[in-house]
Design a protein that fits this description.
Layout lengths: L2 H10 L2 H11 L7 E3 L1 H11 L10 E5 L8 H12 L5 E5 L17 H5 L10 E5 L2 E5 L5 H4 L2 E2 L9 H14 L1 H4 L4 E2 L3
């Protein structure tokens, strides 16, 4: 089994995550996907023999230059009506390039945006094509399935960028939840 098929199998075996992916698919968002913590945490829980629980918000990302940023709230409200038990986060990644640094180049796609999340194992998205789970993993999923965490190269370029990663690691304390997790700065 490849690391990608392993992640797909973990997602597919999780009825709750599959329902979330169906909700996202049915929103008909351009390049719409579930991303970040929901996938990362689910994979780490599965690999650690832990019961599934959503530990973070549900990150819905898409890339549509034709939609105003105000549509994020409309999509959020729709998803909240469908499934109020979740803490939805909806982001049109067209508008997110300058979240941490004003000199970040504009994103060109949802995959480009996901590839700029701070930590490598967080740079993963999933979407349904019909009922098949497809992954968006610009940095691959090796770190994810091997319980390794490091910053993407963008956040390794200097002390100012690396500080964002270090602050996130200090705040998230993932090794408390996943003791086998290896955290590195490179």
């Amino acid at each position: 089994m490849t690391p990608e098929s392993q992640v797909q199998a973990i997602i597919t075996a999780n009825p709750e995550l599959m329902q979330i992916l169906r909700f996202i698919r049915d929103c008909h968002l351009k390049q719409g996907a579930l991303a970040a913590g929901s996938i990362r945490n689910t994979v780490w829980q599965s690999l650690s023999g832990q019961p599934f629980q959503l530990l973070s918000d549900i990150d819905v990302v898409f890339f549509d230059p034709e939609r105003p940023v105000s549509d994020d709230l409309k999509i959020y409200e729709h998803l909240t009506q469908l499934a109020p038990q979740y803490q939805w986060q909806v982001k049109n990644e067209v508008y997110m390039a300058h979240y941490n640094f004003s000199d970040t180049p504009e994103f060109t796609s949802v995959a480009d945006a996901i590839g700029h999340f701070v930590e490598v194992p967080t740079c993963v998205g999933a979407y349904l094509d019909g009922d098949a789970v497809n992954l968006i993993a610009p940095h691959g999923v090796d770190d994810l399935v091997n319980l390794r965490c490091r910053p993407i190269l963008f956040y390794q370029q200097d002390a100012e960028h690396l500080a964002i990663y270090q602050q996130q690691m200090a705040a998230k304390q993932w090794q408390r939840t996943w003791p086998r997790l290896q955290v590195a700065e490179r």
